[in-house]
Every structure is written in structure tokens, then in C-alpha cells.
Amino acid sequence: MKGEDLFTIAEMLKRPVFHRARLAAGERGIHRPVGWVHVLEIIHVSPFVSRNDLILTTGLWLKRYEEERFEYMKQLFSQGAAGLCVEFGTTVDAVPDEILEWAEGHDFPVIVFEQPVRFVEITQDIHSLLINRHHLLLQNLESFSRKLQQETLRSSDMSAILRLLYDYVSRPVVYISSINASRFVPSVDTALAEKLGEIYGREVEGRMSTDREDHLLFRLNGHTSVLFQPVVCFGQIFSAVGILLNGEQPGEAVPLLLDYTAKAAATLVLRTQFLEERLLRNQNELIQELMNRQISSEEQAQTRMGLRLLAKGEYLFMAGIFEVESLDKEAGQVRREAIHQDILVLLRSLLKKHNLHSLLMMKGNHCYLLCAKESITARSLTNLRTVLSNIVQHLNRYAEEELSGVRIHAGFGKSRGRMLETDLSLHEAYQVIETARCVARMKDRLFYDELGIYQLLKAVPGTPFLAAFVEDHLGTLITYDQEHQMQLLDTLDMYFQCHGSKKDTADKLYIHRQTLYNRLVKITEIIGTDLLTPDKRHCLEMALLAHRMLQSEGN
């Protein structure tokens, strides 16, 4: 808007009502913006001064002690006042040199009127001008909003809305993205583009919370700064729109224009992602064929996924499942499908943000994922697991904050070196979800490698075998516990967890040591052997785990 939204001390001094005024101190601060003008004669001014206020006074406060005079100036400065106007001839005839020196040192403009003036004329003139400028600002914002809407309806071209913003602010505009190409209007040199990308990646994209979506100001050098506004989609920051400032204050309109543009950019990002989603639906066929083992050539599979064939090294492939559970049983099919689609688009955007090659397929309430990462270093697998954990965290936060009555369960199979083993990884991923759902201590586990002994329990073919195993080793104890309510199963479980320490077991169960002794004697009588014999202990521990798992699955 050619900067007309910013009214400064320098412009104010050119007004006719200030033709008899003189700038006595703070010349370096004449570019401070003026937002309002009012008269203050009291000493304790802090509660009555807002940022960018210009204060008019007859100098009554200058009659106070020196310490109080400085306190008055400090209050104005700390509250962000634009400056101070002092009238001579009514109360005082001069401003002390020490006050002027302080103002000069803090670049705080002090304007003096050598003769009495009518403050009402000053306030009327400046207020009329500010109100008219504000009205013009609102008209320009409305015009910008209307044109922005037309551009977003006309096409999905991000450059078009950036050029529109550039026309309004007459300052360079930047768009930095982690999922699309960055853009600059007009173009900037490579060094500046890289620096802007670094600031975005370090200060903007990494912000975990999007509760505050205010603009962010970062200094590039002594004169240039960038004002960023994050582009938020599905509660995640995927890009940002910015304006380069050359030492000037952004004013009132620039942040508003930036906010409008960021929201329009979010609309285009979402539209583009949904369009990509439609174009990428042929991935469903590839994942389905991998699940059904209908592809026999590893090279063919990798080529269809779009991976470059590596001369050296190999890929790490990890498959996973995201299960969307709807807690609202009355939710209609249309709403559920919309939720599934939103989660799919968000998941694809997060994978793209982390530069992961991936295939996605939504089937019912399950989203099947296959991702690939070049195995370059020993930490490649660790890094892949960290990225996937972060993605699950983002999805869970989105579901909690934005989707009422929706819970997301996730699990990932073992990493493998071949795409053709995707079906095995997906089977393992589902075992992770099942185990996390039915075993309380495993509820936060995401990876098959973390299941421990439950890998073996989940691999046992058929529930009847496990049930028979539990009955053989714990059946009499379970029956006795149900009839007498002595909590013998819990006691045995804790006894094993405490490695046979009676003191620790009693402390953990909050019971007297003698009570524990009596329970252990009864358990031994029922089971009929020494509990800590290695073979017997292994069987009992396995049976306890299987019993808990079968109980949860039954519920």
C-alpha cells in the first residue's frame, strides 16, 4: 500500500498545526509511528499510555523533583509512546537539558511549542487524518481481500497471489515451503534465498505449537529483516509467506495483508494436496499387489514406486498401518469418509515434508503405508523411526485437537531391504496395533521390534492353543482366584516382576510381608512346585502374559 498506512512523527511535523513547533531532541526517532494523540498532565502515566501514542502536555510534571521527571519519561518510553509535545508559556518556559539529553540518547522525540497553542486543534487535525487513513486502509484491505479471493477461485497458482501481495505492499515477497517449491517476487539472489530457507526451517517450521499464528519478524542483517506468517494446514506448518523490510516498521496494514495471503496460500496448498491425492490413487493398485504378492520382480516394484535404482547401497523399506477409530457411533458414513480423506492428505503432506518416498492406500478405516529411505549410514534406520514417531505424534495431536471422537492407532513392521516383503511388514504392523490396544504396558509401542515376547505370543497360530497353554499352567490358580478373590494372579505377576524379592513385592502391592508369605504358600500349594525353578518360572511368566492378552482381546 505504498506505506501510506504508517503515519510518522516526521510526517506529523509537516502538518500546518505544527508550523510553530520545534524538534528539541530525538531526531533519530522521527520515523516512529503515531497512532493517536492525547493530553496527559498527571505524573503516573503508564496506565493511560498505549503504544504509538503522542502525548501533549503543558509540562506540569517538570515542576516535580528531578527523579520524578525522569520517571515520567521512562514511563512514556517503556509504554512505547511515539513522542512528547511540550507547550511553553503556560506552566514552563523550558525543558531541562538533562531531560533532552536523556531523550536524545533514547531516540525519543521531544517537540516543543515556543508559544501557547490550542491542543484541541492539534488533536482534531491528527485524529481526523488518522481516522481517514484508517478508513482508506480498510477500503484497501477489502479490495485486496476481494482480489485475493478472485485469484484463488481462478487458479491454484501460488505466484499469482504473491504478485498481488507485492503490488499492494511494494516490497519483495517470499514463499518458503517444505512440501512445494519456494518462490520469490521479484527473484532474489541464491545466498539470500538460502538464508531465508534456513530461518524458515529453524525458526518457523520447527514450531510445535500453532496456537499462536502471529507474524514472526527476523533480522537478516543491519538493515534488512523478514516478516513471516506461517501457512497452517490441518494444524501443521508446511510453509510461510514473508515480506522483506528494509529497516522500516511494518505498520498496521502489512501484517493484515500477510495474514490474508497466508490463509489464501493455505487454501491453495490444501487444494493442491487433494488434487495430488486423486492423481496418486494408482498407488492403491501397487500396494494391493504387494500385499497379495502379485509382483515377482524387486526391480519392477521399485521402479513403479518411482525409486532410482542404486548402484551401491540399498533402501530401507518399512510398512505401517494407521487405524482410524471412530468413537462417535452415530457419525454418518459421509463424515467418516471426509475424516479419512483429511487424515490421508495430512499424512501424505507430513511424509513429503520429511522427504520420505512413500506409497499410501486408504481402505475402510485403515491407511496402509510403505516408505523407503536410502540406507546411507548406520543411523539411517534410527532416523527413519524418529521421523515416523514424529508423524504419529502430529497425527494424534491433530485428531485430539481438530477431530471430535476420533482416535488413531499406528504400528510399523520390521524394516526390510526388499519391497516384495511388504506383506510381512504389514502383518507385523497390525500385530503392533493389536498388542498396544490389549496390553496396557505396550500402549505406546509403535514398532514390531519393541514387542519383545509378544512377537512370539502374537505369532502363535490360533487363540485355542494359547488358551490351552494358559489352562495347563494357570488354570487351577485362575479358578481358585475367581472363587476366593485372593488376588493370587496379581501377586504371582508382581513377584516375578520383582525378581523373587519378597520385600519389593510386598511394597509394590501395599500389603504386609506376612500376607505375602501366606499368598505365596497358597500359590505353591495350588501350582504344586517351586515357583522360581527356571523352567517353571518361564512357563508361568509366559502363561501370565498370554492370559492378560487373551483377557483384553476378549473384552
UniProtKB/TrEMBL annotation:
<dbReference type="Pfam" id="PF07905">
    <property type="entry name" value="PucR"/>
</dbReference>
<feature type="domain" description="Purine catabolism PurC-like">
    <location>
        <begin position="11"/>
        <end position="130"/>
    </location>
</feature>
<dbReference type="InterPro" id="IPR025736">
    <property type="entry name" value="PucR_C-HTH_dom"/>
</dbReference>
<protein>
    <submittedName>
        <fullName>PucR family transcriptional regulator</fullName>
    </submittedName>
</protein>
<dbReference type="InterPro" id="IPR012914">
    <property type="entry name" value="PucR_dom"/>
</dbReference>
<dbReference type="InterPro" id="IPR051448">
    <property type="entry name" value="CdaR-like_regulators"/>
</dbReference>
<dbReference type="InterPro" id="IPR042070">
    <property type="entry name" value="PucR_C-HTH_sf"/>
</dbReference>
<dbReference type="Pfam" id="PF13556">
    <property type="entry name" value="HTH_30"/>
</dbReference>
<feature type="domain" description="PucR C-terminal helix-turn-helix">
    <location>
        <begin position="488"/>
        <end position="546"/>
    </location>
</feature>
